[in-house]
Design goal:
This protein is an alpha+beta fold. It contains 3 helices and 8 strands. About 30% of the residues lie in helices and about 30% in strands.
Amino acid sequence: MAGLIVLKPGVDWIATGGLFDWTLEFLISRLSDRQTTNRLQEIVDNNLGSLWIDDLPAAVRQEIVSHWRNGLVTAASNNCRRPITSSRKRKDDQLALHDVVELREARPSEQLSAGAVGTVVDVFEGPPPIYEVEFTDADGRTLAMVTLRADQVVRRDGNL
């Protein structure tokens, strides 16, 4: 299940359930407001899948943004089980993080047509490698996060 964090109306972030929970747990361990940390823990424990930042008190919103700006990426890097690959360091024709790909066939369940363009946001090593691909609209809002095999996409040169 995916998780949704709405920063303010029209500005939101959708992530896989595990990443969503990890992000809330990151905040739970750092926020000073106990009422908010209890609310975040309830969201994680009950698999509620969404958080509306705009509903929180202004001081808590500022604290959340500060923690995200000053520690989220570092904490994620320190907790990463495998090194983050770069598109410059790939094995043969294997896809890498941030590669731009195109769907070979339509995925009606995700409302994606053949030729839809997405970005590799995670690489799961192992035979065969599996890729988490994010598809967005023209404004950068996530339309779908899909786990795909290499034979389901083709790498594109250039940008979205």
